[in-house]
Amino acid sequence: MSAVTAEVADQVAGELSELADLLAGLPAAAWDAPSLCPGWRVREVVAHMTLPMHASPPVVLLGLLRARMRWDVLADRRARLDARRTPEQLLAALRAPRMLAWTPPGGGATGALVHAVVHGLDITEALAVGRRPPAARTRIVLDGLTVPRSLTHFGVALQGMQLQAEDLDWSYGSGRVVRAPAAELALILSGRRLADPEASKAV
């Protein structure tokens, strides 16, 4: 494992641990509160994040075949199924050592960090708990979200604008400048928020 990969893996471990600790301290009703993911409550988001702990690769493949190779359909079905578990079971899955080694197909450690941070924001932003990932972690996520594969996956169009983080020395693109906190830019790049130059602070 390279030094860079090890650093990102450490950030994944930190994100999962911190999110688990936050969730453990929330009232039980919060698990049934809506998230930023349409149709998913907090429990469905955590269930989706911990899919590798609930279904083996053969089970996932079978589910994908049944979903006619539509990953979004499979992900929704599995999230709703696995969300039936108790909060304690979902937290145990989030803290499982095997979660630290999981990476999305073709995504590597950075893909795992993007997955953890973005879905963490799906929860914390919806609950308005005020938690934002550390700057070093968010910078890695922003770099991961701006590779062509990621932009295509999330269907984000950024032509004619430059995103600039207000709290990091980070920017992407060219054109009209849209400034926002780094975590907000992560939400824009993952399709959770709209990048509206007219409504944003511009210079």
Automatic annotation (TrEMBL):
<dbReference type="InterPro" id="IPR017517">
    <property type="entry name" value="Maleyloyr_isom"/>
</dbReference>
<dbReference type="Pfam" id="PF11716">
    <property type="entry name" value="MDMPI_N"/>
</dbReference>
<dbReference type="InterPro" id="IPR034660">
    <property type="entry name" value="DinB/YfiT-like"/>
</dbReference>
<feature type="domain" description="Mycothiol-dependent maleylpyruvate isomerase metal-binding">
    <location>
        <begin position="15"/>
        <end position="96"/>
    </location>
</feature>
<protein>
    <submittedName>
        <fullName>Maleylpyruvate isomerase family mycothiol-dependent enzyme</fullName>
    </submittedName>
</protein>
<dbReference type="InterPro" id="IPR024344">
    <property type="entry name" value="MDMPI_metal-binding"/>
</dbReference>
<keyword id="KW-0413">Isomerase</keyword>
<dbReference type="GO" id="GO:0016853">
    <property type="term" value="F:isomerase activity"/>
</dbReference>
